[in-house]
């Protein structure tokens, strides 16, 4: 975790204040400022350890209900919990800021947050899994929520998105069914944090509109390496207006600076047990170490007149807008630079609503969005109560003034004798449009009320196939394996047979492979031809950073007594300069001695972890320096396993000198002929970089850097 102590963290967080953080400071309480224990009402407490009792000589009788402090303490404890979110219950969050590069979006919108480059808009982002409860693991296969609150000068704008650009259903009325199906089954509340069960796949098989998103969830997007390495998507179609009466349809995109990276499924499974808070800690560790996560912000824009020009309906949330048809225009970026101060007050109480828009941004007739606009507002009432918008993390940084009054836990005291409009004092009157009031897009609506969907909403498989075709070879294999895992967990043959039928509409080979893997009947013919259409912008390999980087990566250095001390120090300095963090993994969590070092001489390097304490899964790369320690490493089954497991997960491995022999033996790399290497010669094979010897400035630097960046 964080390498900074509390004091350092305070200096660091002071440097990352913004308008919202300053606003929150109104509510800060600092227990270290010298205050002593009081009741909730300020009475000094003499004893918080023993309940008031009736005593008689040496006999200690019953506890007395009159002990106000004890009752207050227990009563407050009894009510500490609030309902967890019905979906996206497990989350972690951070503060940051958003800036646009220039005013180029002015042609589409009058929203200042999207057009004024002189502005820095504070943001608060909550990332989440969807299925699991608050206490579930981070690395499960699931969609990830990516919800951003922009505290703009015109009010709060909430962009409540996911790391997948499409959704399982087209119409919000299906949301309760979808969520019931994916959540633990009702009779036994199994499984936790998994979609691998009969009910989810039963629903997915019977609701073919989910096919496209199911492909995404089964791809590597369902197991991101980090929140920092995920794309984000607003998913729904919103609108932009520029004040001249023109309207545009828009989709919002977040693109991570570090590229899009995922776990391998085996890693994700293991980490769910080894460190269920892995993503939460990763976000905090990166920010506290100053490696601030950054996302570019992009928009896809379609003029109103072109709404019907596409073979899909642009208001259907199960469809993406291919970038080849509608390019993403990058207009700004967001940086997350500050961790939360208190989880409950900030991360748990933050409340996002898709209906929270600012002037210049509007809704569309996307039927999923319209239902969402009701649902989020409504759910906050049961989670937080009617005055939830006054909670510190939710309140805007611009003035709030209206005639909404009272309700449970009203915090404001409005000094006025009128609470209605119009009033004889003419106070708090509405704004004119020219004063920046929210402008509803004027439009003509007429028609016949019917329970229908747009005709193009009936096509469900084109884009599922398009996505699958766009994946690289390894990504396709991962997706096949994910389907095998998930459907193998379904024990009702009706369920997995049904899903193989769906796959027959996407790709015949994928359907056959799945049938073979999970035991369904072997299909004999595709239900639909695979037209082979693909995009260059859907595989996550398309989002590698232009310059490879190891920024924010965690690198384990495996050592035992007898390692080369100067070499280790130089390697760590080198990696630190590239903003990666090294962790020394040793035979004990204490001093590990270099070649020639002894306890008496006081030399030694502090190991961050014992090699039983952490596993290779929790690091992005592994380094084994040279030195006689290699002999000891060879004798430890756990050390050998570290190397084998890292190799099995395709992690970059760097080894030098005697470390090469150890690594070579551990994984059996016949291609690397260590003996024939000359000094400083570097060999890279299967993601393993070896060098016979290390010297600062040698080619091994570049090779190590390049190879580590593959991770
Ligand atoms: Fe939702 C939470 C994302 C469809 C109803 N949703 C929630 C969160 C995210 C999303 C990121 C967590 C917010 C937070 O961190 O507090 N949801 C989406 C996306 C969707 C989507 C990208 C499709 C485009 N959601 C959706 C529909 C409905 C809901 C169709 C209901 C009709 N979502 C909710 C909710 C939640 C929620 C039940 C639970 C907690 C909350 O709202 O504040 O109302």
UniProtKB/TrEMBL annotation:
Residues 38-429 form the Catalase core domain. Occurs in almost all aerobically respiring organisms and serves to protect cells from the toxic effects of hydrogen peroxide. It comes from the Eukaryota. The keyword Amino-acid biosynthesis does not apply. Its cofactor is heme. It holds the Pfam family Catalase-rel. It catalyses: 2 H2O2 = O2 + 2 H2O. Belongs to the catalase family. This is Catalase. It comes from Hohenbuehelia grisea. Its EC number is 1.11.1.6. Keywords: Heme, Hydrogen peroxide, Iron, Metal-binding, Oxidoreductase, Peroxidase. It is an enzyme of class 1 (oxidoreductase). PANTHER family: CATALASE, CATALASE-B. PROSITE patterns: CATALASE_1, CATALASE_2, CATALASE_3. InterPro entries: Catalase, Catalase_AS, Catalase_clade2, Catalase_clade2_helical, Catalase_core, Catalase_haem_BS, Catalase_immune_responsive, Catalase_large_C. SUPFAM superfamilies: Class I glutamine amidotransferase-like (SSF52317), Heme-dependent catalase-like (SSF56634).
